[in-house]
Amino acid sequence: MKQELIQMLQVGTITLLVGGLFSCSKVNDSGISILSPNAPVTNVSEIKQQNKVNSTVYLQGNVVKLIPFVEKRAYELKDNTGTITVVTKEAFPKQKQEIVIQGKVLYKSVPAGGQEFGEFYIEEQKRL
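Request: output the structure for the sequence above.
Response:
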């Protein structure tokens, strides 16, 4: 009886450890984050195609460019569908690093010559 209890505890501990390792893994290909199962990952192209302004989204991609500003920082995040600028108050992520973020979709209007040259960007809320 005591030995069975010890075996059950060992199996339970191993299960928790393995589960903990996988919960820190990358976002899977289906677009669902293992870190946050109820949060679907949005492709960059979807942000630019759909009106998601002021929506909270989760993005996964590689940091391809760092853009220093005076009071804020920005970086370009690239997934397999496109690239988008992310503005953050946090420290820069490492260039070429793959990251998952939660952010708010914003749009900066730039009218010129009767045409709209605005751009969508992300205000980083949390790095996962």
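The chain has a mean pLDDT of 78.
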